[in-house]
Amino acid sequence: MVMVNILDQELIKQTEEICAARGVRFTPQRKQVFQLICASPKASSAYELLEQLQITEPKAKPPTVYRALDFLLEQGFIHRVESTNSFIQCCSCNAHKHYSHLLICDKCSNVIELQDDSLVALLANNAEKHGFTITNHVIESHGICLSCSSNTEE
């Protein structure tokens, strides 16, 4: 079973309540995949999630994970890291629709999600100047996190 701390239990409870309010099912498999994503600071690929899921559900197959990921993305509980085709937890748990900026460490693979309304406004303003309406965007910045850069200086 996935280890879930108290903070994660609150997040799971909140997610269950959101699903109930929306009239969508938060099945045990969806919940498990979500817990696996939440348990890691790194972005997880579908096959990494499948391997972890198979520890408790040996008969789990790729479609199980892909369906769970599709649901979690659709509900706004997770984000896809486009450049690595992997997934992370949404820091706002879909409290509101938002665009995020992901900082991805190329050494340890940790991902930090930032939300900057001024950046989004700037992008929307620049697009508007060209008569363009943004419907979706992905901002991913690759580099080295503070922890990894500190480790290389020692």
UniProtKB/TrEMBL annotation:
One of its Pfam families is FUR
State how the cofactor is bound: Binds 1 zinc ion per subunit.
Cellular localisation: Cytoplasm
Q: Which keywords does this chain's UniProt record carry?
A: Cytoplasm, DNA-binding, Iron, Metal-binding, Repressor, Transcription, Transcription regulation, Zinc
Q: Which cofactor does it need?
A: Zn(2+); Mn(2+); Fe(2+)
Family, as annotated:
Belongs to the Fur family.
Q: How does it assemble?
A: Homodimer.
Q: What is this protein called?
A: Ferric uptake regulation protein
What gene is this protein translated from? zur
